[in-house]
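This part of the workshop introduces the protein records we will be handling. A record pairs a protein's sequence with a compact description of its fold. Backbone structure tokens are a discrete shorthand for how the chain folds in space. The question running through the whole workshop is how a given chain folds. The record below serves as our worked example for the rest of this section.
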Amino acid sequence: MEIKIQNLVRTYHQNDKTVEAVKNVSLNIPSNTVYGIIGKSGAGKSTLVRLISLLEKPDSGEVYFNDKRVDSLDKKEMIDQHRHMGMIFQNFNLLSSRTAAKNIAYPLEICKTPKEEINKRVKELLELVGLSDRADAPISTLSGGQKQRIAIARALANKPEILFCDEATSALDPQTTRSILQLIRDIQKKMNLTVVMITHQMEVVRDACDRVAVLNDGAVVEEGSVSDIFSNPKSETTKDFLSHLNPIADENGQEDSSDDSIVRWSQHGGKYTLRFIDEKTGEPVISTVSKKFDVTFNIRAGGIQHLKEKDIGTLIVDINGEDAEVEKAIEYIKTIGVNVEITGGKA
């Protein structure tokens, strides 16, 4: 299902203060994709997802699902629309008095689904999330990752067309995060879902999303494909996120060297950020430029991000030499397809 939002505004009044949580936000979220919305704490991302998922009404603006306006539906139509959406949360929101299977069954019981159909659907979903053997397990006996798997299964019970994930991996360790993101990607492909993923972790965007919108202070400061955002970030907010990427653990809980973060071995310097795209990550650009121009490089940090579409390499460096030679070196680097930024600014 395609989602379109146009000029959404949401303002709160707290203690005689006006808080503009969402400021005139417009987005097109394609159907059958994993779409990330990333922002730091207070950026407005949770409010935005509540507006998109129809849990709150905007002060102004419009929300469309497949060209049908849905933010203005009456109460009965809104309830019906909610049945076509699923949502998972950071804190799982499971019922501790129920078993794993009974938690999954709960939304089906609310819809008065026949018991035989409920049992069949619960069995299917337990198998889908890899917990067929934990159907009768009390929630208190499940690990964090298992609880999130049950929460995902429950969100899928009524066969939604949209799945909202609000910080769904924030409470999990890196190893479990990887397995949950893989599960969400697999489910998205199998069920042709539109997944909207709210997060403050660029690692989640890198490892799960097709497109991403970057929020800051209630507004979208950048939007595009994940590969474009990683290779050519425009906003300072995005650049800051990219500079603090962390490695994801492998299946043994160890940092995966094939999925490196930006590793900084010097806390000083680093005026320029070079971003190498795909095959450029393996080329001897630094040595070639050093031979071609009278400059030297001091590498302060580096790493390679493995995206679904391509690899993006990053080096944070100082370029030393006469100003004219440095300028010629930078222009040459740009001509061979490497993006150059002044760290914290533009080049």
Remarks:
- The longest helix spans residues 174-191.
- The two ends are 40 Å apart (CA to CA).
- Residues 248-260 have pLDDT under 50 and may be disordered.
